[in-house]
Amino acid sequence: MTRVLVVGSGLAGLIAAVRATDAGHQVTLVTKAALPDSNTRWAQGGIAAAMFPDDSVKSHVQDTLRAGAGLCDPVAVHVLCSEGPARVRDLIRFGVDFDRDESGVTRGLEAAHSRSRVLHAGGDATGAAIEAALVATVRERAARSLRGVGARLRVQEHTMLVDLTVQDGRVTGAVLLGPDEALRTILADTVILATGGAGELFPHTTNPALATGDGVAAAWRAGASVADLEFYQFHPTALAVPGTPLVSEAVRGEGAVLRNALGHRFMLDLHPDAELAPRDIVARGIAREMTRQGGEPVRLDATGLGRELLERRFPTITAACRAADLDWAVESIPVAPAAHYWMGGVLTDIWGRTSLPGLFAVGEVARTGAHGANRLASNSLLEAAVFADRAVRALPLPVRVSAGVSVVTGSTTGGLPASVDRDAVQQLMWECAGVLRSGEKLAEASVTLADWATRPTGPDETIAPNMRVRAYEDANLLDLARVTVASALAREESRGAHHRSDYPDGRLELARTVAWTRTVAWNRGTAPDTADGMRSTLNLDHPTEAEEAIAC
Ligand code: SIN
Hints:
Layout: E1 3-7, H1 11-22, E2 26-30, E3 47-48, H2 57-67, H3 74-93, E4 100-101, E5 104-105, E6 107-108, E7 118-119, H4 126-146, E8 153-156, E9 160-167, E10 170-177, E11 183-187, E12 190-193, H5 214-222, E13 226-227, E14 232-239, H6 249-253, E15 257-259, H7 279-292, E16 298-301, H8 307-313, H9 315-323, E17 333-342, E18 345-347, E19 359-361, E20 366-367, H10 380-393, E21 408-411, H11 422-433, H12 439-453, H13 468-490, E22 515-518, E23 534-537
Parallel strand pairs: 1-2, 1-12, 2-8, 12-19, 18-20
Antiparallel strand pairs: 3-7, 4-5, 6-7, 9-10, 10-11, 11-21, 13-18, 13-22, 14-17, 15-16, 16-17, 22-23
Succinic acid binds next to helix 6 and strand 17.
């Protein structure tokens, strides 16, 4: 019996669960909120794939490598771009209805793509359409499983990953916090992390509040290698209103322009592609303009696109504007950068395998090397689909499953984490490890974070029962802030999304990924000096092809 525990219910987790179920494994899918709640649901722009006659895998590869600023793993990029079209066709078979016009599936242009190759659904509701189709598929498999007709998939919602369990260097399962607030250990032969990113590290983010990096934090504490954590992508254009909703890059792809408070189109001064320059360049351009104008957001002028196109193509953004009392058909809207996507994460090979046997990571939680220092727009959903599928292909072959096997082994007691002020962590990260960084600020942040980590663990009863999830999330954010700041301090150059004023240029000799592994106890409430607790490693192998995927 191969027991597979999938953690997370965005695109990567749902694909992994369905594929693993169909491949004959016994699958348990756990997710922190309700099944449809995930980062995927909020994705607007779409999914990039070389599927049109005037496009090619080679061109998609080149664009991805260029955006990645010299830090992509070319093998991972090739896998991403060459397997992408097949995975998009899988999504269509799973029921995703990509937008069409009279000439077929429609496609958009986004920053740093040399071709229009971004498929979208519901205009700017691509993630929601993908999530809905895959949730329906998972629910159908789970219902069949309940009826005992073939599939073996169990879904546990409102269940948070607290930690991974490790025995003799192998991941053996996970400690989970269930909806009844009890901690339980679940045993598994393989754990597939699909827990997404950690936009909650920053006060301004396009991510939903559940994006607290639980998988990266748990993997790090368990001793898995992590890499590229210094590369956090800030989306250039979030609507500068409470909640910072995303204003898709596709809006600039359609022709919207950015202006400063004087009405000047400043991106023309910064890059030949102006508003369609790579994301990091646009985000920094905006951040600098905002500094010059006393923190005031810049303006995105989409009035030239016309009301009909704006409302048809971008219904989600139109609704966000309306909710903020803005009519973007007639006025420019205030926008500012916000944390959007983590290029770094748990180090994996091109099969989703991490440095810990028994542990896979897919989707944003993983660092596959496909994004390098700066992800190309609309490559994230693609990466999730491609590498989730590959991870399942690389699972050990299932053996016959006997009926009625339970993977839950009983309850576990564990101390609650030290209390941390999330707002303070976020503010510190924005000021010291945000769009613009300096060695001095990062060093200050490192000291402050180490100090916060030494706060004593409170007795269980000091945390109100309904605040337990929040307490574990906060502790994860503190761990991740510390590792991220240490990684950013260690990279003494500027590259992609990581820009340091004290090292404003790239340094060729540093143009490589550094993977970090915890070397000393780094449990909640202990505080090794940041970098001292980390060992630098990078050991990637690319194993031979696994068997072809099972058709969906
Ligand atoms: C966007 O719609 O601009 C976001 C797409 C992405 O992050 O790839």
